[in-house]
Amino acid sequence: RQFASFLMERLNISKEQRSEDDDYIVVFSRASNRLILNEAELLLSLAQEFKMRTVTVSLDEQPFDSIVRVISGASMLVSMHGAQLITSLFLPRGAAVIELFPYAVNPEQYTPYKTLASLPGMYLQYVAWRNIIEENSVAYPDRPWDQGGIAHLEKEEQERIITSKDVPRHLCCRNPEWLYRIYQDTIVDIPSFLEVLREGLKVKPNLKKSKPASTVHPGRVR
Question: Which residues does the UniProt record annotate as the domain Glycosyltransferase 61 catalytic (predicted)?
Answer without folding.
Answer: 7-98
